[in-house]
Amino acid sequence: MKKFVSLLMIVMLLTAGLAGCGSKEEPAAPAQEGNTQEAQEGQEAQSEEPAAPAATGSGAELKFTTGGDQGTYYGFGSVLAGQISGATGTKVTAITSGGSKANIEAMEVGDAQLGFVQSDVMAYAYEGTNLFDGAPVEGFSTVAALYMEQVQIVTCNPDIKTVADLAGKNVSIGAPGSGVYFNAIDILGAYDLTEEDINATYEDFGNSAESLQDGKIDAAFVVAGAPTTAVTSLSTSKDVYLVSLDDEHINKLIQTSPYYTKNVIAADTYNMDADATTVAVGAVVIARDDVAEEDVYNFVSTIFENVDTITTAHAKGAELDLEFAGSVTAVPYHAGAAKYFSEKGMEVPTK
Questions:
Q1: In the chain, is it the N or the C terminus that has fewer CB atoms within a 10 Å radius of its CB?
Q2: Is the separation of the CB atoms in 95 and 113 below 8 Å?
Q3: Rounded to two decimals, what is the model's pTM?
């Protein structure tokens, strides 16, 4: 009997102890129920936290003017815009345009925030010369130089072997007032030819290629990174030749126009019989001065931290080079670009 009473007391004590333990946890339950939404939001914030650094940006949607839809500016620009928009909080939309001069003009009036330009046209605008004679544009800054744009003198006539052979021929020298036009005038001038020495037409890349295809013109000046879509398309139906420049005339050109550099286009670019020697200018991205520093930083950093991915999407990615990107001296760099270059141990001029 005593053993039974003792056992009963032990059971009662254990039951009381378990009830006591349960009563200590009960206050926590209502607290969890009352904070269910906050807890869920906290969990969501934690799950998103690793992506936060890549998502920084002003939130503004930036228009990035490029060039014609058959040119390298638009093709490569679209790849860059997609990469930046997908990886950061900076939203960039690449749109077609009339090229360098039109891009600077659109930026000046606020219709665009970013744009591709030839390095020579950029200098013209900033200094108020040539295309911008007497009307300088200074409200923009350099973002990065990305690749070289070759001056391609395209023909389907194998008898046109030098620039001198263009005399008396039907030649497209670019859209009126374009950077291509001034490049053509420079090249012709190095060979002591003028606009009057040829039968000039004024067409963009796509129309020039169509005119060559139809035999309406004998040659066309195309200034863009090779391979250029319009010329590649032409080469699928006709034999394409690029007119080479010789060293004597290249040196003469560079003496008066130092923004040109000698460049060689490989034969396999357009299934040609031989390499073509020419000159090139830089393809540079510029931005309005009032674009947020963080957005320009995102633009530059995303490009140069993802070169392999970009190269997979477009051949021009293989030409991306950080030293070249920071080599522009004609126009100061945007603060956002300078910040990234500084992180890489490079100092670039700023306003």
A1: N
A2: no
A3: 0.75
Return d(Cα 280, Cα 265) in angstroms, integer.
10
Contacts of 300 (CB under 8 A, 6+ apart): 143, 144, 325, 336, 337, 340, 341
How long, in residues, is the chain? 351
Task: For residues 94 and 66, give the distance between their C-alpha atoms in angstroms, rounded to a whole number.
Answer: 7
In this prediction, residue 49 has a pLDDT band, given cuts at 50, 70 and 90, of: very low
Asked if 42 contacts 202 with a C-beta cutoff of 8 angstroms, the reply is no
DSSP 244-265: ---HHHHHHHHHH-TT-EEEEE
Tokens of residue 342, six digits? 């500084």
Phi-psi region of 177 (alpha: psi -120 to 50; beta: other; left: phi over 0): left
- Tell me the backbone φ, ψ of residue 197, rounded to 5 degrees: -85, -5
Per DSSP (E only), the strands in the chain are 61-65, 91-95, 114-118, 140-155, 170-172, 199-201, 219-224, 241-242, 261-265, 276-288
Quick one: tokens of 81?
């815009």
79, two tokens: 């790849």
200: helix, coil or strand?
A: strand
Distance CA 306, CA 326 (A): 17
Instruction: Compute the distance between CA of residue 184 and CA of residue 192 in angstroms, rounded to an integer.
Output: 12
Q: Which of 37-46, 113-122, 264-273, 342-351 has the lowest mean pLDDT?
A: 37-46
The region, left, alpha or beta by phi > 0 then psi within -120 to 50, assigned to residue 130 is: left
Q: Is 15 exposed, middle or buried (0-12, 13-18, 19+ CB in 10 A)?
A: exposed
Cβ(294)–Cβ(58) below 8 Å: yes
What is the C-alpha radius of gyration for the chain, rounded to an integer number of angstroms? Answer: 31
* Nearest residue to 100 via CA among 30, 178, 28: 178
Residue 248 to residues 153, 160, 255, 262, Cα–Cα distance (Å)? 18, 19, 11, 11
Half-sphere exposure of 91 (CA within 13 A, CB side): 4
